[in-house]
C-alpha cells in the first residue's frame, strides 16, 4: 500500500456517455496504452504517479480512478470485512479528511449512501485501531476521495485521484443560463472538422464555453493550468515536485502569438459580459472577438473556410416552441447565405425543431447533454462546386462503442 505511487494497477478514467472515443484519442496522444474502451471510459494499467499527468491534461474526462483492490462481497458485512483488513493508515493521513463515492448495484443495497457508510466505517475503524485517532469524513471531494464500484458480488475499491470532477475546467466562474459542460464542449469541437487554424464562429455563444474551449484547444492550454487541488495530493507518499514539473510542462506547451479568428456573439448583453469574464479567467480573452448582436448579424470571415457552431435552446428548459421553430429556420437560412465554404454544426436535443432548419445534415453525431439525448448536426455548406474528398479537412470520427 505504501508504494501506490510507483506500483502499476488498473486505472479507470471515466467520462460522460458518448465521450469515450474522444477520451480514448486524448489518452493515446499522451502516450498511454489503453487496455479497453467502454461506454463511459477507458481502462489503463499504470502507476498513481502517472495519473498526475492524466489529471492535468485531459479535457474530456470526469475522474481518474486508481484501483487498490478487487474482491468478492455478497453483502455489506463482507464488504466491511474486506475493507477493514486493508492498510488504510499507510494511504490516508489519520489527522486529515476523506470522503467516499460509489457506483453500486447490489441486491442488499437500497441506497448508495449506506454503501458509502460501510466503506467509511471500515476505513475509520482500521485507522483508529492502528493510530488511535479517528479521521474526519464528509461529503466534500476536496481532499482524499475513496471510490467503491460494486456490482452483484464483484467489488473494486479505488483512490479517486481527481477528487472534484475533471469535466469542469476551472475557468468558468459565472456559468450563465443552461451552460454546456466544459468536457462536452471540448468533445463536440473535437468531433467537428475544425483544423484549429481557420475561423471558428460561435453565434448564440451564451456563457462562451464553446468559444473558450476552441481557444484553449488552438493554443494547447490544458485544464491543469486552472486548478491547484486534486485527490492525489492527499494520499501519503505524494511528491509535489512531480505535480509542479508537469504543470511547468503545461505552461511550456502553450502556443503563443497565434493568428486565429474566433468570433462569439449573443443577443444578450449579459451573456456576452459573462463570456468575456470567463474568457479572461481562462487567459484567452484577447483571442476571441465578442459582440452583442442577433446571430444573423454575426460576422463570418470570407477569407477562411472554417466552422460555424450553434448550441441553441432545445425547448426543454428555455424558450417556447413557436419562437424556436422560427429561430431554427433562421439558423438554416444564415448558414446557407452567410457561411458558404464553411462546415456548419447545430447541437440540439430536440429532433422536431431540427427539422425546421431546412438543410439536410451530412452527419448526425450522437451526444448526451446531461440525461438529454442530443445530436450535433453537421452540414457542408458548399461554395460553388463540391470539393473533392482529398481537399476536405479531416475530422475526428467517433468510433462506435
UniProtKB/TrEMBL annotation:
<dbReference type="GO" id="GO:0008168">
    <property type="term" value="F:methyltransferase activity"/>
</dbReference>
<keyword id="KW-0489">Methyltransferase</keyword>
<dbReference type="InterPro" id="IPR000241">
    <property type="entry name" value="RlmKL-like_Mtase"/>
</dbReference>
<feature type="domain" description="THUMP">
    <location>
        <begin position="50"/>
        <end position="161"/>
    </location>
</feature>
<dbReference type="InterPro" id="IPR004114">
    <property type="entry name" value="THUMP_dom"/>
</dbReference>
<keyword id="KW-0808">Transferase</keyword>
<protein>
    <submittedName>
        <fullName>Class I SAM-dependent RNA methyltransferase</fullName>
    </submittedName>
</protein>
<dbReference type="GO" id="GO:0032259">
    <property type="term" value="P:methylation"/>
</dbReference>
<keyword id="KW-0694">RNA-binding</keyword>
<dbReference type="Pfam" id="PF22020">
    <property type="entry name" value="RlmL_1st"/>
</dbReference>
<dbReference type="InterPro" id="IPR054170">
    <property type="entry name" value="RlmL_1st"/>
</dbReference>
<dbReference type="InterPro" id="IPR029063">
    <property type="entry name" value="SAM-dependent_MTases_sf"/>
</dbReference>
<dbReference type="Pfam" id="PF02926">
    <property type="entry name" value="THUMP"/>
</dbReference>
<dbReference type="Pfam" id="PF01170">
    <property type="entry name" value="UPF0020"/>
</dbReference>
Amino acid at each position: 500500500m505504501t508504494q501506490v505511487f510507483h506500483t502499476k494497477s488498473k486505472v479507470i478514467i471515466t467520462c460522460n456517455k458518448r465521450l469515450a472515443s474522444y477520451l480514448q484519442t486524448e489518452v493515446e496522444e499522451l502516450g498511454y496504452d489503453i487496455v479497453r474502451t467502454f461506454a463511459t471510459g477507458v481502462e489503463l494499467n499504470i502507476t498513481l504517479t502517472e495519473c498526475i499527468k492524466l489529471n492535468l491534461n485531459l479535457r474530456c474526462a470526469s475522474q481518474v480512478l486508481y484501483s487498490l483492490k478487487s474482491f468478492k462481497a455478497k453483502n455489506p458485512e463482507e464488504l466491511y470485512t474486506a475493507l477493514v483488513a486493508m492498510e488504510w493508515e499507510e494511504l490516508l493521513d489519520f489527522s486529515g479528511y476523506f470522503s467516499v463515492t460509489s457506483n453500486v448495484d447490489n441486491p442488499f443495497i437500497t441506497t448508495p449512501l449506506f454503501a458509502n457508510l460501510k466503506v467509511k466505517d471500515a476505513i475509520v475503524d482500521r485507522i483508529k485501531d492502528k493510530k488511535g485517532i479517528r479521521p474526519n469524513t464528509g461529503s466534500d471531494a476536496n481532499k482524499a476521495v475513496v471510490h467503491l464500484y460494486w456490482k452483484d458480488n464483484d467489488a473494486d475499491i479505488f483512490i479517486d485521484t481527481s477528487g472534484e470532477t475533471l469535466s469542469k475546467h476551472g475557468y468558468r466562474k459565472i456559468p450563465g443560463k443552461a451552460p454546456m459542460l466544459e468536457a462536452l464542449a471540448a468533445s463536440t469541437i473535437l468531433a467537428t472538422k475544425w483544423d484549429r487554424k481557420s475561423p471558428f464562429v460561435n453565434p448564440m455563444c451564451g456563457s462562451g464555453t464553446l468559444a473558450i474551449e476552441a481557444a484553449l484547444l488552438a493554443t494547447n492550454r490544458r485544464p491543469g493550468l486552472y486548478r491547484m487541488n486534486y485527490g492525489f495530493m492527499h494520499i501519503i507518499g505524494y511528491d509535489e515536485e512531480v505535480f509542479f514539473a508537469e504543470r511547468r510542462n503545461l505552461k511550456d506547451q502553450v502556443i503563443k502569438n497565434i493568428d486565429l479568428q474566433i468570433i462569439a456573439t449573443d443577443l444578450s448583453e449579459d451573456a456576452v459580459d459573462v463570456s468575456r469574464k470567463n474568457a479572461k479567467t481562462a487567459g484567452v480573452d484577447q483571442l476571441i472577438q465578442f459582440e452583442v448582436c442577433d446571430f444573423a448579424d454575426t460576422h463570418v470571415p470570407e477569407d477562411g473556410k472554417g466552422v460555424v457552431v450553434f448550441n441553441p435552446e432545445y425547448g426543454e428548459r428555455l424558450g417556447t416552441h413557436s419562437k424556436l421553430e422560427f429561430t431554427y429556420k433562421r439558423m438554416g437560412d444564415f448558414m446557407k447565405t452567410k457561411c458558404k465554404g464553411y462546415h456548419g454544426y447545430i447541437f440540439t436535443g430536440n429532433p422536431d425543431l431540427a427539422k425546421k432548419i431546412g438543410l439536410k445534415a451530412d452527419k448526425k453525431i450522437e451526444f448526451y447533454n446531461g440525461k438529454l439525448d442530443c445530436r450535433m448536426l453537421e452540414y457542408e455548406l458548399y461554395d460553388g462546386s463540391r470539393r473533392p474528398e482529398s481537399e476536405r479537412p479531416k475530422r475526428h470520427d467517433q468510433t462506435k462503442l
